[in-house]
Amino acid sequence: MAKKGPSKISVLLSDAEYERLDAYCRDRGYKKSTLVARLIRQYLDMEGYGATAAFTPGGRGPRGPGMR
Question: Is the pTM of this model over 0.90?
Answer without folding.
Answer: no
